[in-house]
Amino acid sequence: MSEQIGPIAVLGAGTMGHGIAQCFASIGAAVRLYDVDLPRAEKGRAQIRAVLDKVVAKGKMAAERADGIVGLVNPTADVATAVTGARWVIEAAPEDMQLKVDLLGKVKAAAPADAILGSNTSSLSITELGARVGAADRVIGLHFFNPPPVMELLEIVRGVSTSAATIAAAESMAKAIGKTSILVNDAPGFATSRLGVILGCEAMRMLESGVAGVVDIDRAMELGYRHPMGPLKLTDLVGLDVRLAILDHLTREIGEQFRAPPILRRLVRAGHLGKKTGRGFYVWTPEGPRLPMAGE
Asked: Are residues 175 and 196 in the same domain?
């Protein structure tokens, strides 16, 4: 199955990109991991190594298997090198339509004519992306969840012109990498982002209005509704900047119920983007998340 899927090109070596690369390398597929400069791409591979080293240390994976997975990931800073001969190209670039259009435009010029072009966007229009790239039948949304190697769900998003063959290939690929997929039509926020951000948004409004504190709001959903993680902690994990971009997009597309709470915009302006910066609604330490202290 890995030979049928690979080689894979993953564009963007950040949190989502290197996690997606790990998913494919774990089934034996060769992965080219692209970023705008080689150190960033190499850092993505190093992060895969760091994740797997922890798994090995816990006795859940043999060191030789971890070495094999990392060895299948090849960093590059050249788009053409990444996509030449690739069956699948999956971009995990920031949530900016023009950036994604420009990137996939370069891909289209260098990748095989039948390569499937997947986007890990969590909210942008797959229909628009496919039309602007000029490969609407081959463009599909592949919305992975953080962290990609752990989270079971893959949200597959079909644009208006995405072909049946592309959809079938995506569903088969999801099974090959051990994911359970759902198929949704192209709509602002799809299914998961739309539901997820509205819960997070309301949790922030409750915090602002003094209904309860951060920990108690999160525990309400964790213990009362069996959510594995509360909405504020999840926002920290996803990234406050990512959540803000999604909310701004959904406000424009759908309406005021998605307007970002002021607290979210203030934290983003302060550079407190969640776990990736060490501070969001929580302070993230090696021992785990805690509440900010006075003056922090």
From this structure: no
